[in-house]
Design goal:
Phenylalanyl-tRNA Synthetase, Chain B, domain 1, 6 domains, about 25% helix, aminoacyl-trna synthetase, protein biosynthesis, alpha+beta, 21 helices, phenylalanine-tRNA ligase activity, magnesium, Phe-tRNA-ligase_IIc_bsu_bact
């Protein structure tokens, strides 16, 4: 909320500079976002009167005016504004004045006619954004020769406060003044609001069919208003400094009362109302054209203001176009109501709206303000537009108004929470200044929360109020008495952050998708999956909880491919959901997807596309981070979403924990994808396991390496062969590396040549050829017996 500092100080004015006042408000929990001047800097501008106007001899669009600036000397000014007229009071920049933007006024000749100053527009004075077509016409009561800046009170600041949702009571000058008064122990003096005597007996019938959502509705007929009247400049300025544009006097006054007291109001054109006002729920399919010109279809859970012909406004949000006040309006029906926060909460957003009224009603408006606001608005309307008020019609359901809330506050609990003893008189004074009724009890006090504080319901709320008003910075700083011990750090575990950094280092980008996915997409990828279905999904495409990370990654792939991104590397971590609600397993997973070229486009890069083994290498880099890569295995498997023959089951210490594979061609065709993609997902718990590194002294003795090329059946998994070799290679084997797989000339059909490098090293002596030859013979013999392998060549 924005407000003028001068306006606030009319209610309560502590002896504080602007910044000190802003700091005090912030420390009280009402955070100040910005403090800005209400107008840019300028000097040398006074109130003047146009005494003569004549056509410029050489320019059709220019006038030569004589201006009395109160100095006793008439000034000649060339003015191009179309609205300049004799007798107007205007802001006049004398020769030597400096306008915003460091624009200096000098004597000048325009088309041969001397000009001794400038009649200013609002935009030239920085009081209006954009460019004004005409000059700023002042009220006839403006004092001639008075310094314009001082007369307008432009040495003022706009303070913008970012209120938390629980402090809707401060969305008004009255609420903010109450806070400042409490903080500085000052009395608050607002304008006197008197009951307006009815000058006629006409009433407009009001029916409230939903008192639970609208416990109080107040209305009054005012006849003979002059909508063409001019809103007073002081009111226009206060609205401007609060971020609201002046429209017409009726709308301006309802907006002004809302800013002043915090009660949103609305005025209907009486000629467009029929039979009676009814507060009810909308009927299914009922339509309404709003004040902004937008036509909407109302839902049956929306509270509306209606008459016998249909809806007139969304209650607490926005009025309708056809019942609003226009230039032809003469009689109005003034509305002021209390809608419960739950009746309005979320309604504006569901229609794509956000209004000052909905912002306040959602947070809670004081139900005691409705009648006061009507009287205040009526008085202002009579002053500005004339009009004859009728009697107030007050339809109140006392059973549905918020009940009084009495809260027990214990002195011992207060002292314990604050860490200090707050004097009883001081505590009572703070609570009473906040508008609460306080009664002494044996243990402390019994406090009644005021009608405007919807956020005060329990003892802790009262303690918070006392702490913030007393001053958080005045509370004692004490060390906790509890013994604090550090938790042991699980050094064996790999934190998710390290795994994410590794994926980024491998060229992947992190994706974050919803935990709910399309039932059709999940059924395509995981036909047998069972996961919870949402009772109230955001949309039909987000109706079930994901049973895998694959659907979200596939959707992200489609999104990128549709935007001409051909090389894609994505990973995601999150929960997947298996089973029904009664037996639901929530499993943290980490998954990834890659498609497109293996290397980024460049002169040194090839054009090969990424394949199964590229992504397997990326996944193995994650597995190796735990320091126990030997605990992991990849076994052939079958997955409904993955390509047969290019699918691996990921095992950790013999347990199945994930999948790796290329997207199934049939699935790819059904999804309309034109490129291959390789995916994986692994349980995060298994990825997080690791071992503590241990120091092993480096051997000073030479390594011995033997290379073997074994011919084996082409269907034999290489991992099985590697396991056999490790069993026979002995304890001094330090490295076993697969460096080539060959099929072709010189190798029988149905076979493949697997080239392996084996390295041995003894920690305390040099190995001899006889020992190595025995190990090699054992390897060849065992692999022949187990797999039919033979040495190539």
């Amino acid at each position: 909320m924005k407000f003028s500092e001068q306006w606030l100080r009319e209610w309560v004015s502590p002896q504080l500079a602007t910044q000190a006042l802003a700091d005090q408000i912030t420390m009280a929990g009402l955070e100040v976002d910005a403090v800005e001047p209400v107008a840019e800097g300028f000097a040398g501008v006074v109130v003047a009167s146009v005494t003569h106007k004549a056509q410029h001899p050489d320019a059709d669009k220019l006038n030569v005016c004589q201006v009395d600036d109160g100095s006793g000397e008439v000034r000649q000014v060339v003015c191009g504004a179309p609205n300049v007229e004799v007798g107007q009071k205007v802001p006049f920049a004398r020769v030597g004045a400096v306008l915003p933007g460091d624009f200096k006024i000098k004597r000048a000749k325009l088309r041969g006619v001397e000009s001794q100053g400038m009649i200013c527009s609002a935009s030239e004075l920085g009081l209006e954004e954009g460019h004004s077509a005409g000059i700023f016409v002042l009220p006839a009561s403006a004092p001639l020769g008075e310094d314009f800046r001082a007369w307008m009170g432009l040495d003022d600041s706009t303070i913008e406060v970012d209120l938390t949702p629980n402090r809707g009571d401060c969305l008004s000058i009255k609420g903010l003044a109450r806070e400042v008064g409490v903080l500085n122990c000052l009395a608050v003096a607002g304008p006197a609001i008197e009951t307006q005597v009815a000058t006629h007996d006409d009433r407009f019938t009001i029916h409230v069919s939903d008192p639970e959502r609208c416990p109080r509705y107040v209305g009054r007929l005012i006849k003979g208003v002059d909508v063409g009247a001019e809103t007073p400049l002081w009111m226009v300025e206060r609205l401007r400094r609060s971020g609201i544009r002046s429209i017409d006097p009726v709308v301006d006054i309802t907006n002004y009362v809302m800013l002043e007291l915090g009660q949103p109001m609305h005025a209907f054109d009486l000629d467009n109302l029929h039979d009676a006002i009814e507060v009810r729920l909308a009927r299914e399919g009922e339509r309404l054209v709003l004040l902004d010109g937008q036509e909407i279809a109302l839902r049956d859970d929306t509270l509306v203001i209606a008459d016998s012909r249909g809806a007139l406004a969304i209650a607490g949000v926005m009025g309708g176009e056809h019942s609003g006040v226009g230039l032809e309006t003469r009689d109005i029906f003034l509305e002021s109501a209390f809608f419960t926060p739950l009746a309005v909460a979320g309604q504006a957003r569901t229609y794509g709206l956000h209004t000052d009224a909905s912002h306040r009603f959602e947070r809670g408006v004081d139900p005691e303000l409705t009648l006061m606001a009507v009287e205040r608005a009526t008085a202002l309307l009579r002053e500005v537009t004339g009009g004859e008020p009728g009697p107030v019609v007050d339809v109140t359901s006392h059973d549905h108004l918020p009940p009084s809330r009495w809260i027990e506050l214990r002195a011992a609990r207060l002292e314990q929470a604050l860490g200090m003893r707050l004097e009883s008189d001081r505590a009572v004074d703070i609570l009473q200044r906040l508008g609460m009724s306080v009664t002494d009890t044996v243990a402390g006090w019994r406090v009644e929360a005021p009608s405007w504080r919807f956020d005060i319901a329990i003892e802790e709320d009262l303690i918070e109020e006392l702490a913030r008003i007393h001053g958080y910075n005045r509370l004692p700083v004490r060390r906790p008495l509890a013994r604090l011990s550090l938790r042991p750090d699980g050094e064996r575990r790999q934190p998710l952050s390290r795994l994410r950094h590794q994926m980024v280092a491998r060229g992947y980008q992190e994706a974050i998708s919803y935990s709910f996915v399309s039932p059709d997409l999940q059924r395509t990828l995981l036909p047998q999956a069972i996961s919870p279905r949402l009772a109230n999904p955001i949309s039909s495409d987000m109706a079930v909880m994901r049973a895998s990370l694959f659907p979200g990654l596939i959707k992200a792939l489609e999104h990128n491919l549709n935007r001409q991104q051909s090389r894609i590397r994505l990973f995601e971590s999150g929960l997947v959901f298996h089973g029904d609600l009664d037996d639901l397993a929530q499993i943290p997973m980490l998954g990834g997807l890659a498609c497109g070229s293996r290397d980024p486009e460049g002169w040194a890069g090839g054009r090969e596309t990424v394949d199964f083994y590229d992504v397997k290498g990326d996944l193995e880099s994650l597995l190796a981070m735990g320091g126990s890569i030997s605990a992991w295995r990849f076994e052939p498997g079958e997955h409904p979403a993955l390509h047969p023959g290019q699918t691996a089951r990921v095992l950790y210490r013999g347990d199945a924990v994930g999948w790796l594979g290329t997207l199934h061609p049939a699935v790819r065709a059904e999804l309309g994808l034109k490129v291959d993609a390789v995916l994986f997902e692994v349980q995060l718990e298994a990825l997080s396991q690791g071992i503590l590194p241990e120091f092993i002294p480096l051997s000073r003795y030479p390594e011995v390496r033997r290379d073997l090329a074994l011919l084996v059946d082409e269907t034999l998994p290489v991992q099985s062969l590697l396991d056999c070799l490790r069993e026979q290679a002995g304890e001094w084997l330090t490295e076993l590396r697969l460096f080539d797989v060959y099929q072709g000339k010189g190798v029988a059909e149905g076979h493949k040549s697997v080239a392996l490098g084996l390295t041995w090293q003894h920690p305390s002596r040099t190995l001899n050829d006889e020992e190595i030859n025995q190990l090699v013979d054992a390897i060849v013999t065992e692999s022949k017996q187990r797999f039919g392998a033979r040495l190539r060549g």
